C-alpha cells in the first residue's frame, strides 16, 4: 500500500545502503536504473545475457507509432552503459539475497565471458576467425553466429563474448592438454594451416603423435556415445603431413597480424639433459620465453626414445627429424654424443637444469643364460637398428619375450630385418615368435600393433614363461626352456596372475632371443643427493613444478614416470618449462592447474540432438589405411598410409563440438588488443545493496504449444518473434520478408492470435495483452516491406485497449487492408510439395472452410522467463499459478510473500508480474524506483560518485595548435586505410602541430598518452580519427577535459564505420576518404571555441495539480522521498473519481478503503501542503524555477515557487447520450450501478427507491440485467477504447451473481478486453452463467420501453439473429472522456494534448510520464483511461522523475544549445513557434528573442527557422560548418 | 451440421432447448472429439453431444415420426414457423432405435445369433486350439461385433489370432459369451441400457481367470478402458491393451519374426484409439519395425488426425455424411503417395476401403487399406511383396 511504505520512516533510523540491485536489463531494468542513478543511488544492473536491452532489442518496430524499436532503445542503452553510477553486470546471475530491507547482501555469479569486457572494442576480429557455428538465438535460430559473438550490433557493453561450455573431454584427457576440438573445428572449415598452429600450441611433435600416440582423447571422445569416437590421431597426422607439404601457408598462418614485440632475452642459461620429447618440449618452451638453452644428448642422434625406441616403419626418422629441427632452429644449442656425468655439477654453469634422460636401461628376466651373445634386449636391439646396425637374422628362429608394444615392435622389426636380408641374399626369412606368460586378453600391447604383428606373420605362444636360455657347445643360443602357465586370481593390475604348472617344462627352439619385459631409467648421471621415487628406480619430483628436492634441478618424462607415452613426456615438459620460467624470473612457483569444468554430454542431450537432426550416425571416415602385410615386411617403409583432405574434412565433421568454444585460440591470435582470456573462471561477487528490483522480463511461448497449428511440422509456420526478426533490417534476411522453406516472397500471410494465451488447456489462462497489437503492427510493417502482401488476422477479440491503439487498428483495416477474421483457426496443414499452408476455420456464417496461405505467423503468448520460480524462491517472493511473481493488491511493484504478507525492500516491475506492454513496464520500473528511492532516502548520494575535473585552461587567446590521432583499430582500419600515409598527410595540415597513429586510440594507455601529449606540445585542439562518436566521443572529451581543455575543443572523424568498413575492397579509395574526413575534422577543430554549459538553480519544492488517486499518490511519494510538496485540488474534498468507485475487484482490494487510507496519509505527512477548492490561475517560469499563482477557496491569490509540476487532473465518466439514458429510471451507468450495489445511492436516486422500497430490496427483485458496452467509447465522437469498462462490467456482473445467482445477467459487447490476468474474471463470469452477446459496430443494440418494461434488442454475432431481452435494469458501460478544461492548463504549462484531448506524453513508449519539456510530469487518467493500480504506478513513476530533478542542486543545460545574435534578430517570433521545448521566448516589446538554455535541447529547429541567421547553434556555427565543407572541396579538388 | 459445435454450445447458453432438440446436429456428431481437443476452454464437446441425445430421449423427443415431433414442438413452431423439421432426423432415429433394440435382444449389432461370433475362424487354415473359452488363458481377445459379423472385416481377427499364435501368446476369446461392448448405446445417449452388457462382459472375463483383455477394435478398447470403470464404479482389475500395444510389446521382446515388405505406408489414427485414448506411438512402433516399411505421416495425424467418417452411429443414422468425410481422408493419403493406408480399427478399414474404391486417384495408385495386425501377419508369412 502506498502508506505501507512505512519503511521510509523506518529507514531514517537505520544505516541504509545507498545502492540498489536491478535484476534484468531489458527496458524495464534500464529505466529503473536510470531513475535510481539520477535520484542519487548507486545501481548494479544485472543480466543473464551478455548485453543489456532484453526483448525490446529484438523487436523491429513498436506500435502504435511504428517507431524503430532499436532507434528509440539505443540512446537509453548508451545512457545506461555510460552512467557513472550504474554498474552494468552482464553475463551474471543472482545466487542469493540475504539481510533486511535497506541492507541486503546479494551474491552474484559472474559467468566467464572469456573476453575482457572493458578492453574489447567490439571490432569482431575474434568472430571472424572463430570456427564454431551456433544458431543465433537473438534471431530466434533463423541465422547463425560464431561461438565468439556480440549479441547484436548495438549491444551495450559493446563487447564480444565467447560461448563455452567447458573443457572438451578430448582436451581434458590428453596429458599435453591438446585442444583437439579446436583443430578439428578448423579442419572442418578447411583451415589446415590454422589447425597446425592450434596443434603446435600444445604439442611440438604433431607428426609423431599423429602416428604413435595412445590417443586417450579418442577414448574420452563424446562421439563415442553416438557411434565411434572421432579419429583424432589420424586427423593430427593429416595436419602434420599437410603442414610439411605447405610450408609457405604455415609461415603465413603463424605471421602476426601486427608487428609483434620482440621476445626479451633474459640471459638465463638452462641445461637440458636428454633430447627426448620431454627435454625438447622444455627446450622449446623456454627458448620462446627468451632463455638460453643447451641440450645434452649422449647418443649420436636427438629424439630419445622417439628416435631409437620406435621402429622406422611406425615413425620414419626423417619425419621425426623435421620436428626436432624446428625446435633446434629456434636457436637452441644441441650437443650430441655428450654424456653428462653429474647433472648437479651443471649448476655451476647453468641457472637451471632439466633432467629428461628417459628409460633406456633393460630389465632382464632373472634366468640362467641371459648373458649369452644372442640374448638381446629389445631396447638395445631397436636402438641398434634405428641407427643402422642390423644383426644377422636371416633364416633365424627369433623368440621375443613380453606382451607389450615394445615386444610387438621388436618382433616386427626382427621379422623385417631378417626378411630384407633374405630378399637380398635370396634366402629364407626368419621365423619370429612372441612368448608371453598370460594370454592375448591380458596383453598390454595396443590392439592395432597386435593385429599388425599377426598380419605380418609373427607367431604367438601364450601362457609360456622362460626358465633358462640354452646354449650349444659353441656358446651360442640354441633354445629356450620354458614352462607352461595357468591363470590364477587377479593381481593388483587387475589381470589374472600367471602361475607355473609344475612339470610342464619344454624346450623352444631359438637362435636369437629378444627380451622385451620392461625398461627403467639409467640414473648414473643423477647423484644420490637427488631423491628417488619410493621404488628407487625413478627421480622424485613435485607434481606441479617438476622440481626435484635439489633447487634448480627439474626432471620429467620416463625418467620420472618409468616407461610411458610421448604425450605424457610432452605434458611433463610443458609443466616443467612453466615452473623453470617462474623459477628463473624469481616469480612464485606455479600451483596446480585450475580445475575447469569438463563437458559431459548426457544421453538426453544426444537424444535431443538426434531428434533435431543435428546428429546423424556416421561411422569413422578416416580409418587406418595400411600397406599390405606381404608387402610391408620386405622393408622398413611406413605401415600406415596418409589421410586425404576430403576424408579429413568429413571426419572432422563428425565432431560434436561438445565444448561449444573449441579453444582453438584463433581468436587469441586475431585479437590485437589481447583481451581474450580462455582461463577465466566463474566468480561469485558479493554486493551490498539497500533494495532489489526484479525486472527479468518475459519469454515467448514455444511455437508448438498448439500442435494443430503446425509449428515445427510445417516450415512456413513461424512464431511472431521469429517474424519480428524476419522484418528487422538487422535480422537474418536484412528485412526482406521471405519464407523459411524456399525464400519465396509470401503473398498471403495469416496471423493466428491467442496461441498459448487465453488457453487453459496449456495452463495459460491469461491474456498476453500485447499480441493483438503486435500482430497488427507486424501486418502493417510486412505490407510496408512488400505491398503485395495480403495479411489476415484470425482472432477471438481485438484487444486494442491502450492509448492510440483503436485508431491504429482502424488504420490497419482501412488504410493498409489488413483483413480481420473473428474466428480461430482449428488446423494448419501443409499442402504437399508447395510449402503452402491450408488453414481450416469457421466463417461468420457458420461454415467450415479451408483457405490456403503462403506463410502463417503464430501470435504466441508471453510467460515468465525460465528459472523464474527459482529466482522468486531465492528472494522469498510468491508466484501465482502461472509462475508470475505475485504483486500485492493495489500496491503495484510490491511483492507478496508466500505467507501472504507483503515483502519489503524487494520490488517487481514489468512483465514479470503480469504480461504487459513497454509503456506499462517503463511506468512500473519508475514506480519500483520510487519505492526504492523512498526506502533509501536517507542514504541518497552516499555511494554515488561525481566526476571532478581540473580547472579549465583558457586557450582563447592562443592560436590553434591541433593534435591529430589516427586509430588503426587493430586491423579494422589499419588493414584497409594506409594509416601512416594519413598521418603524414595530417601532419602537413595547417595548424596541426602533432600527429600520431595508435593501435587503439581508445585504450587506457593511449588515453593517458593523449593527456601527456597535450601537455608536452601545448595542444589546444584535438582530433581523433577512429570509430563512431556515438560510443566514443564522450570518452575522448573526458580525456581532454582531464588534461584541462574544454571538452568541446575536440572533434572526431569516423574512418571505420563510414570508411574502412564500407570500402574494404578498395584500400586506395578508403585512404583518400580518410584524408578528406581528417581534413574536414581539422578544419572544424581550428574553428572550435570552448562551450560552457549553462547552469541554473533548482527550487526543491514540488507542485501537484489534482487531488484524485494519482495526485495524492504522487504527492505522498514525493514527500516520502524527502521533498516538500503542495497539492492543489479544485473540489472541496480529495479523492476525485475514486470517491465513486465501490465494488472491489474480484481479486480483492477495496477502493473506498484505499481512498480513506490515502487521504489520511496525505493529511498526516508534514512535508505536504494541501490546498482544496483551489485552482491554478497563472503559471510562469521554467524547470527548476516555476512561479504559480493559485486562486484559493477564499478568493485570495497566492504565489507558489516550485521546481517541478505533476499534472494529475484526471478525467470523467461520459454522460451517455443514447439508449434512453436519463429517460427511464432503470437505465443507469456502471458507476451508478456500483453506488446502488454499495447502497449509497439511496439519497441521490430517490426515484428508484420509491418504487422498490430501497436498493437492497430492488436487487432481490431483479430478474434480468442487461449491460451494454462501449457507450461513448470506440464511436465517432470518442474514437478510443476506455480500457476499463469491460472489466468493470464483469466485476459488477459478478457482484450481482454473487448476491443473486438466479438473476440473468447479459453483457452485450463488441470485444471483451480483459487483458492480462483479468481474463480470469471473464472466465469466472461465464462459469457463473453471465451471458455474453456480441454485436457489431453498425448494428447497435436498441433499448425500448413499453408500459415501463425495458426491452433490449440485439443482433447477435456471428449468427446475425435478433435476440430480444426483457430487462429489469439496463446498465450502460460509459467510457471516460478528458476534462474539458485540459486545454487551458495545457497552454499554461506549454504542453501538448492528444487528438482525443488527453495530455500527450513525450513519447508513448519510453517516456510515458514525462513531457518533452523538462520539469513537468504526468500521471493518472489525465494521461488516458487506467485502472486503479495502473494509476498508482504512474503516480509513483512521475514522483521519482520529479524527485530526481528536485534533489539536484543545480541543473546543467545541454552544452550544445542555440544562441541569438541580438543585432541580427528582428523579433519575428518564428523561432518561438519552431521550438518544441518552449526554450524560446520573445517577451512583449523585446527587440530580440531569447533562449532559456536550461530548456534548450540543441535540436536546431530554430536555426533552420530563422530567416536572418540570427539563431546559431553552439558547436555547429555556420563558420565551422563552412570551413569543413571548404576543406573537403579543396582536398577532393 | 446445421449449427456446428460452437453454435450448439451458444444455443445451450441461451437456453434454446427446442431449437437444439429439433435439430439433427447432435446426431450427426462422429464423437471424434477433434473440436474438443482444440478447445482452449477445455470443453468436452462429445460429452455435450451425448448428453443432448440423452436429454432428447428423456424428454420424449426421440421420436421416429415427424408429425409426432411437430406436435411435441407445437408451441415453439408457432413462434418460429420457418423451422424445418427434417425427415432425415426421424428416419435416422428410427434406425438407431432399431439398433438399440437389436443390441438389447441379440447382444450384438447385427441381430445374428450371438453364438456365431467366431464364424470368421471357420475358414482359417487351422484354427488354434482353445480359441473359445479356454480357462486360465493369460489373455482374452475381445473381438467386437464388427469384426465378428461383417465378412469384410474378418481379415482383422484372422490376422490377429495368427500373429498371437505365432508369437506364442496364451490366449482365448469369449466366443458366444462376448456381448456388445456398449459403445453404440453410449454414443446414442443410452449408456444406461448398456449396463447389463458391461457387467456381463466383465464377469465372463473374470470367470475365465485371464489377467488381461486385448482388442483390435479401438471402440471396445475405449469402452473397457475409460467407460467401464465409470459405469461399474470401480476399476475392473483387468489389464486392458489394444492390439497394437500388445504387438509393440511382443516385437520389443523379439517374439515376432518378420520378413521384408517394401511398402510406403501411412498410418491413420483412429479417433477412439488416438485422440480419445492417447495411443499414438504403439501402432507407429509396430509399423516401423516391419523391415522395408517406410512410414509417411499424413499432413494431419496424431492429435489432429481427422475422423475416417465411420465414427459415432453415422453409418446407421446417415450414411451419406460418412462418404464425404472419408473421401477427404483418402485425399490426404494420396498427398503423401502412400501405397497402404494402415489403421488399427476395423471400422476405419471398412470406411476407408469403400472410400478408396470410389476415389479415382487412390484407385489409380492401387492404394490399399489394411489393419496393422494384417500387415504384421503378412510380414510374418513373408509374402508381403505379392
Describe the structure.
The complex is a heterodimer of chains A (1533) and B (386). In chain A, strand 21 and strand 22 (477-490) form a beta hairpin. Chain A starts with 6 loop residues before the first helix and ends with a helix. Chain A contains 45 helices and 69 strands. Chain B has helices at residues 4-13, 17-21, 34-38, 45-58, 66-72, 74-79, 87-106, 145-149, 155-166, 183-187, 195-208, 218-232, 243-252, 281-288, 314-317, 319-335, 346-358, 360-364, 372-381; strands at residues 139-142, 171-173, 212-215, 239-242, 263-268, 293-296, 340-343, 368-371. Chain B has a four-stranded parallel β-sheet with strand order 2-1-3-4, with helices on both faces. In chain B, strands 6-5-7-8 form a four-stranded parallel β-sheet, with helices on both faces. In chain B, helix 12 links the parallel strand 3 (212-215) and strand 4. In chain B, helix 9 packs across helix 19 and helix 13 (243-252) crosses helix 14 (281-288). The longest helix of chain B has 20 residues, at 87-106. The N and C termini of chain B lie far apart (43 Å). The interface between A and B is medium-sized, with 23 and 22 residues.
Largest sheet report of chain A = 6 strands, mixed
Largest interface: A-B, 23 and 22 residues
Shape of chain B: globular
Distance between the termini of chain A: 71 Å
Topology, number of strands of chain A: 69
Q: What percentage of residues of chain B falls in helices of 4 or more residues?
A: 40-55%
Distance between the termini of chain B: 43 Å
Which runs of chain B of at least 5 residues are low in confidence (pLDDT < 50)?
none
Q: Care to count the β-strands of chain B?
A: 8
Compute the average pLDDT of chain A: 92
Major sheet details of chain B: 4 strands, parallel
Low-confidence stretches of chain A: 1-13, 1242-1260
The number of helical segments of chain A is 45
Fraction in beta strands of chain B: 5-15%
What is the rounded Rg of chain A?
42 Å
- The proportion of residues in beta strands of chain A is 15-25%
Count of helical segments of chain B?
19
Radius of gyration of chain B: 21 Å
Oligomer type: heterodimer
Strand order of the largest sheet of chain A: 5-2-1-29-41-40
Amino acid at each position: 500500500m502506498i502508506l505501507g511504505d512505512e519503511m521510509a520512516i523506518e529507514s531514517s533510523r537505520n544505516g541504509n545502503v545507498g545502492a540498489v540491485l536491478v535484476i534484468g536489463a531489458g527496458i524495464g531494468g534500464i529505466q529503473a536504473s536510470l531513475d535510481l542513478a539520477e535520484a542519487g543511488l548507486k545501481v548494479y544492473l544485472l543480466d543473464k545475457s551478455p548485453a543489456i536491452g532484453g526483448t525490446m532489442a529484438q523487436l523491429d518496430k513498436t506500435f502504435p507509432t511504428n517507431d524503430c524499436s532499436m532507434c528509440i532503445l539505443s540512446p537509453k542503452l548508451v545512457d545506461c552503459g555510460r552512467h557513472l553510477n550504474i554498474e552494468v553486470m552482464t553475463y551474471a546471475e543472482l545466487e542469493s539475497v540475504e539481510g533486511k530491507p535497506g541492507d541486503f547482501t546479494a551474491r552474484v555469479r559472474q559467468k566467464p565471458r572469456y573476453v575482457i569486457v572493458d578492453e574489447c572494442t567490439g571490432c569482431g576480429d575474434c568472430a571472424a576467425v572463430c570456427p564454431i557455428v551456433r544458431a543465433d538465438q537473438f534471431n530466434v535460430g533463423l541465422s547463425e553466429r560464431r561461438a565468439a559473438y556480440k549479441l547484436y550490433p548495438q549491444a551495450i557493453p559493446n563487447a564480444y563474448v565467447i560461448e563455452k561450455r567447458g573443457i572438451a573431454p578430448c582436451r581434458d584427457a590428453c596429458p599435453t592438454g591438446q585442444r583437439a576440438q579446436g583443430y578439428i573445428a578448423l579442419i572442418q572449415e578447411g583451415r589446415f594451416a590454422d589447425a597446425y598452429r592450434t596443434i603446435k600450441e600444445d604439442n611440438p611433435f604433431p607428426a609423431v603423435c599423429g602416428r604413435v600416440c595412445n590417443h586417450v582423447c579418442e577414448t574420452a571422445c563424446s562421439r563415442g556415445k553416438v557411434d565411434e569416437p572421432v579419429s583424432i590421431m589420424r586427423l593430427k597426422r593429416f595436419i602434420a603431413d599437410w603442414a610439411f607439404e605447405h610450408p609457405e601457408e604455415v609461415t603465413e598462418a603463424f605471421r602476426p597480424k601486427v608487428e609483434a614485440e620482440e621476445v626479451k632475452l633474459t640471459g638465463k642459461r638452462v641445461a637440458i639433459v636428454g633430447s627426448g620429447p620431454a627435454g625438447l618440449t622444455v627446450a622449446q618452451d623456454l627458448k620462446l620465453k627468451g632463455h638460453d638453452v643447451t641440450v645434452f644428448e649422449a647418443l649420436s642422434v636427438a629424439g630419445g626414445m622417439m628416435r631409437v625406441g620406435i621402429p622406422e616403419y611406425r615413425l620414419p626418422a626423417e619425419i621425426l627429424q623435421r620436428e626436432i629441427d624446428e625446435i633446434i632452429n629456434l636457436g637452441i644449442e644441441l650437443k650430441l654424443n655428450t654424456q653428462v656425468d653429474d647433472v648437479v655439477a651443471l649448476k655451476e654453469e647453468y641457472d637451471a637444469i632439466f633432467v629428461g634422460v628417459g628409460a633406456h636401461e633393460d630389465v632382464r628376466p632373472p634366468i640362467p643364460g641371459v648373458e649369452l651373445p644372442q640374448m638381446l634386449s629389445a631396447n638395445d636391439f631397436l636402438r641398434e637398428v634405428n641407427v643402422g646396425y642390423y644383426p644377422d637374422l636371416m633364416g633365424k628362429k627369433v623368440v621375443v619375450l613380453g606382451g607389450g608394444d615394445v615386444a610387438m615392435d621388436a618382433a616386427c622389426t626382427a621379422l623385417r630385418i631378417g626378411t630384407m636380408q633374405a630378399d637380398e641374399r635370396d634366402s629364407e626369412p626368419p621365423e619370429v615368435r612372441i612368448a608371453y606368460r598370460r594370454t592375448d586378453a591380458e596383453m598390454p600391447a595396443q590392439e592395432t600393433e597386435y593385429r599388425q604383428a599377426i598380419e605380418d606373420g609373427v607367431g604367438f605362444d601364450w601362457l609360456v614363461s622362460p626358465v633358462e636360455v640354452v646354449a650349444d657347445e659353441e656358446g651360442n643360443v640354441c633354445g629356450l626352456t620354458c614352462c607352461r602357465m595357468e591363470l590364477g586370481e587377479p593381481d593388483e593390475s587387475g589381470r589374472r596372475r600367471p602361475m607355473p604348472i609344475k612339470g610342464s617344462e619344454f624346450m623352444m627352439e631359438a637362435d636369437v632371443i629378444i627380451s622385451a619385459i620392461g625398461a627403467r631409467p639409467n640414473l648414473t648421471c643423477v647423484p644420490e643427493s637427488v631423491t628417488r621415487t619410493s621404488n628407487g628406480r625413478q627421480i622424485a619430483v613435485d607434481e606441479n613444478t617438476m622440481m626435484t628436492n635439489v633447487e634448480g634441478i627439474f626432471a620429467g618424462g620416463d625418467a620420472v614416470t618409468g616407461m610411458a607415452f610421448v604425450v605424457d613426456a610432452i605434458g611433463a615438459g610443458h609443466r616443467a618449462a612453466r615452473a623453470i620460467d617462474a623459477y628463473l624470473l624469481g616469480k612464485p612457483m606455479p600451483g596446480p592447474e585450475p580445475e575447469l569444468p569438463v563437458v559431459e554430454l548426457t544421453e538426453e542431450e544426444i537424444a535431443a540432438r538426434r531428434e533435431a537432426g543435428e546428429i546423424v550416425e556416421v561411422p569413422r571416415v578416416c580409418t587406418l589405411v595400411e600397406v599390405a602385410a606381404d608387402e610391408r615386411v620386405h622393408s622398413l617403409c611406413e605401415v600406415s598410409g596418409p589421410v586425404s583432405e576430403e576424408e579429413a574434412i568429413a571426419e572432422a565433421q563428425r565432431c560434436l563440438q561438445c565444448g561449444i568454444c573449441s579453444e582453438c585460440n584463433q581468436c587469441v591470435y586475431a585479437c590485437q588488443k589481447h583481451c581474450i582470456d580462455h582461463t577465466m573462471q566463474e566468480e561469485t561477487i558479493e554486493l551490498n545493496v539497500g533494495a532489489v528490483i526484479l525486472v527479468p522480463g518475459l519469454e515467448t511461448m514455444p511455437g508448438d504449444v498448439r500442435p494443430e497449428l503446425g509449428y515445427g511440422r510445417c516450415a512456413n509456420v513461424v512464431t511472431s518473434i521469429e517474424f519480428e526478426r524476419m522484418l528487422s533490417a538487422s535480422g537474418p534476411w536484412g528485412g526482406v520478408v521471405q519464407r523459411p522453406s524456399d525464400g519465396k516472397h509470401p503473398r498471403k500471410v495469416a496471423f493466428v492470435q491467442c496461441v498459448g494465451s487465453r488457453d487453459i488447456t496449456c495452463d495459460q489462462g491469461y491474456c498476453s495483452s500485447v499480441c493483438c497489437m503486435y500482430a497488427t503492427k507486424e501486418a502493417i510493417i510486412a505490407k510496408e516491406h512488400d505491398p503485395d502482401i495480403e495479411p489476415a488476422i484470425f482472432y477471438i477479440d481485438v484487444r486494442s485497449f491502450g492509448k492510440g491503439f483503436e485508431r491504429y487498428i482502424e488504420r490497419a483495416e482501412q488504410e493498409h487492408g489488413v483483413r480481420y477474421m473473428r474466428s480461430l483457426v482449428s488446423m494448419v496443414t501443409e499442402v504437399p510439395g508447395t510449402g503452402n499452408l491450408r488453414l481450416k476455420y469457421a466463417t461468420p456464417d457458420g461454415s467450415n472452410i479451408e483457405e490456403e496461405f503462403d506463410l502463417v505467423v503464430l501470435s504466441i503468448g508471453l510467460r515468465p522467463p525460465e528459472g523464474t520460480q527459482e529466482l522468486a524462491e531465492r528472494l522469498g517472493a510468491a508466484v501465482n499459478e502461472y509462475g508470475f511473481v505475485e504483486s500485492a493488491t493495489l500496491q503495484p511493484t510490491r511483492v507478496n510473500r508466500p505467507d501472504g504478507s507483503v515483502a519489503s525492500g524487494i520490488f517487481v516491475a514489468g512483465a514479470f508480474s503480469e504480461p504487459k506492454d513497454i509503456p506499462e513496464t517503463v511506468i512500473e520500473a519508475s514506480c519500483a524506483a520510487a519505492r526504492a528511492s523512498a526506502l533509501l532516502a536517507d542514504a541518497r548520494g552516499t555511494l554515488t560518485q561525481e566526476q571532478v575535473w581540473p580547472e579549465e585552461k583558457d586557450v582563447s587567446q592562443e592560436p590553434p595548435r591541433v593534435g591529430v590521432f589516427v586509430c588503426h583499430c587493430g586491423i579494422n582500419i589499419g588493414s584497409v586505410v594506409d594509416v601512416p600515409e594519413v598521418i603524414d598527410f595530417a601532419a602537413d595540415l595547417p595548424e596541426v602541430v602533432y600527429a600520431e597513429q595508435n593501435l587503439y586510440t581508445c585504450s587506457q594507455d593511449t588515453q593517458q598518452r593523449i593527456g601527456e601529449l597535450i601537455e608536452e606540445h601545448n595542444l589546444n585542439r584535438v582530433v581523433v580519427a577512429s570509430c563512431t562518436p556515438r560510443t566514443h566521443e564522450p570518452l575522448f572529451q573526458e580525456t581532454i577535459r582531464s588534461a584541462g581543455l574544454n571538452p568541446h575543443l575536440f572533434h572526431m572523424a569516423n574512418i571505420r564505420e563510414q570508411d574502412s568498413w564500407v570500402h574494404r575492397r578498395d584500400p586506395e579509395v578508403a585512404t583518400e576518404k580518410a584524408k578528406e574526413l581528417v581534413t574536414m575534422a581539422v578544419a572544424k577543430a581550428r574553428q572550435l571555441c570552448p562551450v560552457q554549459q549553462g547552469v541554473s538553480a533548482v527550487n526543491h519544492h514540488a507542485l501537484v495539480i489534482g487531488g484524485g488517486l494519482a495526485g495524492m499518490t504522487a504527492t505522498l511519494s514525493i514527500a516520502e522521498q524527502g521533498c516538500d510538496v503542495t497539492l492543489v485540488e479544485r473540489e472541496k474534498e480529495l479523492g476525485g473519481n475514486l470517491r465513486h468507485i465501490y465494488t472491489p475487484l474480484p481479486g480483492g482490494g477495496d477502493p473506498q478503503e484505499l481512498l480513506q487510507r490515502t487521504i489520511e496519509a496525505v493529511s498526516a505527512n508534514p512535508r505536504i501542503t494541501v490546498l482544496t477548492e483551489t485552482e491554478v490561475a497563472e503559471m510562469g517560469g521554467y524547470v527548476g524555477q516555476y512561479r504559480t499563482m493559485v486562486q484559493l477557496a477564499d478568493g485570495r491569490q497566492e504565489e507558489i515557487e516550485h521546481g517541478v509540476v505533476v499534472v494529475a487532473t484526471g478525467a470523467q465518466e461520459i454522460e451517455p447520450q443514447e439508449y434512453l439514458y436519463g429517460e427511464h429510471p432503470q437505465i443507469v451507468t456502471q458507476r451508478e450501478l456500483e453506488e446502488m450495489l454499495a447502497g449509497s445511492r439511496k439519497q441521490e436516486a430517490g426515484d428508484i427507491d420509491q418504487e422498490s422500497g430501497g436498493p437492497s430490496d430492488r436487487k432481490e427483485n431483479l430478474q434480468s440485467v442487461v449491460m451494454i458496452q462501449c457507450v461513448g467509447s470506440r464511436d465517432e465522437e470518442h474514437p478510443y477504447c476506455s480500457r476499463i469498462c469491460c472489466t468493470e462490467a464483469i466485476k459488477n456482473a459478478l457482484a450481482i451473481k454473487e448476491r443473486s445467482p438466479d438473476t440473468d445477467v447479459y453483457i452485450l459487447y463488441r470485444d471483451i478486453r480483459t487483458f492480462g490476468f483479468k481474463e480470469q474474471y471473464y472466465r469466472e463470469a461465464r462459469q457463473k452463467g453471465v451471458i455474453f452477446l456480441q454485436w457489431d459496430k453498425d448494428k447497435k443494440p436498441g433499448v425500448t420501453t413499453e408500459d415501463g418494461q425495458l426491452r433490449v434488442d440485439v443482433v447477435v454475432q456471428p449468427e446475425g439473429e435478433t435476440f430480444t431481452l426483457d430487462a429489469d435494469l439496463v446498465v450502460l458501460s460509459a467510457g471516460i472522456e478528458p476534462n474539458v478544461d485540459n486545454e487551458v492548463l495545457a497552454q499554461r504549462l506549454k504542453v501538448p494534448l492528444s487528438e482525443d484531448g488527453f495530455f500527450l506524453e513525450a513519447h508513448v513508449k519510453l517516456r510515458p510520464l514525462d513531457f518533452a519539456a523538462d520539469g513537468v510530469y504526468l500521471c493518472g487518467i489525465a494521461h488516458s483511461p487506467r485502472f486503479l493500480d495502473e494509476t498508482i504506478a504512474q503516480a509513483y513513476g512521475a514522483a521519482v522523475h520529479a524527485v530526481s530533478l528536485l534533489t539536484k542542486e543545480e541543473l546543467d543545460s545541454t552544452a550544445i544549445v542555440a544562441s541569438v545574435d541580438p543585432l541580427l534578430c528582428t523579433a519575428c517570433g518564428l523561432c518561438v513557434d519552431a521550438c518544441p521545448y518552449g526554450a524560446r521566448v520573445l517577451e512583449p516589446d523585446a527587440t530580440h528573442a531569447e533562449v532559456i538554455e536550461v530548456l534548450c535541447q540543441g535540436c536546431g529547429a530554430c536555426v533552420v527557422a530563422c530567416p536572418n541567421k540570427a539563431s546559431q547553434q553552439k558547436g555547429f556555427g555556420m563558420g565551422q560548418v563552412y570551413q569543413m565543407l571548404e576543406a573537403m572541396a579543396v582536398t577532393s579538388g | 451440421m446445421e449449427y456446428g459445435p460452437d453454435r450448439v454450445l451458444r444455443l445451450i447458453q441461451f437456453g434454446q432447448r427446442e431449437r437444439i432438440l429439433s435439430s439433427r446436429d447432435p446426431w450427426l456428431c462422429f464423437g471424434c472429439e477433434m473440436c474438443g481437443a482444440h478447445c482452449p476452454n477445455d470443453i468436452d464437446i462429445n460429452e455435450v453431444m451425448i448428453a443432448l441425445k440423452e436429454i432428447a430421449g428423456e424428454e420424449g423427443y426421440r421420436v421416429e415420426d415427424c408429425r409426432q415431433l411437430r406436435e411435441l414442438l407445437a408451441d415453439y413452431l408457432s413462434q418460429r414457423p420457418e423451422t424445418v423439421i427434417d425427415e432425415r432426423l426421424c428416419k435416422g432415429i428410427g434406425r438407431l432405435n432399431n439398433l438399440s433394440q437389436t443390441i438389447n435382444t441379440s447382444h450384438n449389432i447385427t441381430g445374428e445369433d450371438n453364438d456365431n461370433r467366431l464364424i470368421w475362424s471357420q475358414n482359417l487354415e487351422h484354427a488354434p486350439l482353445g480359441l473359445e473359452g479356454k480357462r486360465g488363458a493369460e489373455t482374452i481377445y475381445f473381438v467386437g461385433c464388427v469384426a465378428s459379423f461383417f465378412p469384410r472385416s474378418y481379415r482383422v481377427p484372422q490376422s490377429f489370432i495368427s500373429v498371437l499364435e505365432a508369437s506364442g501368446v496364451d490366449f482365448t476369446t469369449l466366443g458366444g459369451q462376448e456381448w456388445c461392448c456398449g459403445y453404440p448405446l453410449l454414443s446414442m445417449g443410452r449408456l444406461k441400457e448398456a449396463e447389463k452388457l458391461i457387467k456381463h462382459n466383465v464377469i465372463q472375463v473374470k470367470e475365465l481367470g485371464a489377467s488381461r483383455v486385448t482388442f483390435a477394435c479401438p471402440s471396445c478398447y475405449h469402452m473397457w478402458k475409460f467407460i467401464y470403470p465409470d459405469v461399474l464404479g470401480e476399476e475392473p482389475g483387468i489389464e486392458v491393451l489394444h492390439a497394437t500395444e500388445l504387438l509393440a510389446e511382443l516385437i520389443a521382446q523379439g517374439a515376432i519374426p518378420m520378413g521384408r515388405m517394401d511398402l510406403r505406408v501411412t498410418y491413420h489414427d483412429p479417433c477412439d484409439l488416438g485422440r480419445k485414448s492417447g495411443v499414438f506411438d504403439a501402432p507407429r512402433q509396430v509399423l516401423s519395425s516391419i523391415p522395408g516399411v517406410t512410414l509417411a505421416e499424413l499432413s494431419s495425424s496424431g492429435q489432429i488426425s481427422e475422423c475416417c467418417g465411420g465414427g459415432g452411429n453415422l453409418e446407421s443414422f446417415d450414411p451419406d455424411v460418412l462418404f464425404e468425410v472419408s473421401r477427404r481422408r483418402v485425399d490426404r493419403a494420396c498427398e503423401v503417395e502412400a501405397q497402404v493406408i494402415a489403421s488399427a480399427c476395423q471400422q476405419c478399414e471398412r470406411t476407408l476401403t469403400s472410400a478408396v474404391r470410389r476415389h479415382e486417384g487412390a484407385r489409380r495408385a492401387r492404394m490399399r487399406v489394411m489393419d496393422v495386425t494384417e500387415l504384421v501377419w503378412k510380414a510374418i508369412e513373408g509374402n508381403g511383396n505379392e
